[in-house]
Amino acid sequence: MSGLGRATKGISRAKPGRMLGMDSLENTRYESLLVELKEEFPRFRLIHKSQSGFQKLIHNALKVITFGQMRTYLSQYHTTLGQRIYVPNSWEETSENSRYVTLCHERIHMRQFRKFTWPGMTLLYLLVPFPMGIAYFRARFEMQAYAESIRAAAEVWGAEYVQDNDYKDYLLSQFTGASYGWMWPYRGKLERWYQRALEAAVGEPAEPNV
Predict the structure, then answer these.
(1) CB 7 within 8 A of CB 179
(2) In angstroms, how far is CA 41 from the centroid of its own chain?
(3) Which residue has the higher pLDDT, 103 or 203?
(4) Are 5 and 148 in contact (CB under 8 A)?
(5) What is the chain's mean pLDDT, rounded?
(6) What pLDDT digit, counting tens, does each position of 7-27 carry?
(7) Looking at residue 27, what is its pLDDT?
(8) If you write DSSP's letter for every residue of the chain in order, what string do you get?
(9) What whole-number distance in Å separates Cα of residue 154 and Cα of residue 98?
(10) Taking residues 104-115, what's their average pLDDT?
């Protein structure tokens, strides 16, 4: 179920300068989320993709069906299947703030699995109405999860971070590009969705950084 990935690119660039005590706040935020996830999902686990033959199979299949354009599934994307989140080998080297934002995104997918069940998620995410090109339910599921990414990123790095055009363009490219099988090619609709998600995250948005 490749499209349930969350790329590290786009949240790994230089962050605003830290204030005294920010490291402890970062640790507390991430550790608290881990506790919340374990309470909400008792079978929650983080697993390296390199340890999963199934994830390697998905990676090879994606390279084929995207005509070689999706080659970073193992190294840059996180994938939720049920209560398991599969992560790249670089997970431990990633800042706890970045891990926090990623897990906020993936928690939405775990809730989707709980609501729609494994058979329902598999059918809706992968096949309805089409597996590629116009994948309505995949796009809807990812809009919910990426809206949470926007909220969490604003919480961690501030409103300016998510108002930046580079961040927005990267995020929208996940919907229009090969990473998720070109799941939603309608840029205008994506722009409107992003604006709504931004306003929900930070209130009335300021002028974007260019």
Answers:
(1) yes
(2) 18
(3) 103
(4) no
(5) 88
(6) 444 444 434 344 334 456 667
(7) 79
(8) -GGG---STTSSSPPPPPPTTHHHHHHHHHHHHHHHHHHH-TT-EEEEGGG-HHHHHHHHHHHHHTTT----HHHH--EEETTEEEE-TTGGGS-HHHHHHHHHHHHHHHHHHHHHHHHHHHHHHHHSS-SSS--HHHHHHHHHHHHHHHHHHHHHH-HHHHHSHHHHHHHHHHHHSGGGTS----HHHHHHHHHHHHHHHHSS--PPP-
(9) 12
(10) 98
CA distance 100 to 93: 13
Q: Does residue 207 register a pLDDT over 80?
A: no
Please give the Cα distance from 207 to 210 (Å, whole number).
Answer: 9
For residue 205, is pLDDT > 70? no
What's the mean pLDDT in 154-161? 96
Q: Output phi, psi for 50, to 5 deg.
A: -65, -15
Instruction: Give the closest residue to 135 by CA, choosing from 167, 178, 171.
Output: 178
